[in-house]
Amino acid sequence: MPEDDVFLALANPIRRRLLQLLAEGPRTAGDLANQFDLSRPAVAEHLQILRRAALVHDEPQGRQRRYHLTAEPLAQVGDWLHPFERFWRERLHALADVAEEDE
């Protein structure tokens, strides 16, 4: 299932950080690799997983590849999480109530 690829890709903190970086704008593979204490091949492997999950796409630019965020698959995650929002809202309201009591 394509959704499974997205969830598996998001399960790794390195890949989540790569997506955060790409949310700021397109970057080269080298620039992305410089943001981590990992080898370039290790970062390239993470980018490949994100590409297979359709969370990023790349375009050749001379001898480099420029990576772009593809946000559409993240909407699937949002759709899946939507039914659980009520639990967060309830907890946030409870936290707000406690904070107001302390004032």
Description:
With about 100 residues, the chain is an alpha+beta fold. The chain has a single domain, classed as Winged helix-like DNA-binding domain superfamily/Winged helix DNA-binding domain (Arc Repressor Mutant, subunit A), CATH 1.10.10.10. Helices cover about 65% and strands about 15% of the residues. The protein is built from 6 helices and 3 strands; from the N terminus they run ααβααββαα. It has helices spanning about 1-10, 15-25, 30-35, 40-50, 70-80, 85-100; strands at about 25-30, 55-60, 65-70. It has a 3-stranded antiparallel beta sheet. A hairpin with a 2-residue loop joins β2 (about 55-60) and β3 (about 65-70). α1 packs antiparallel against α4 (about 40-50). The longest helix has 18 residues, at about 85-100. It is elongated. The protein starts with a helix and ends with a helix. About 15% of the residues are buried. The model has no long low-confidence stretch (mean pLDDT about 90).
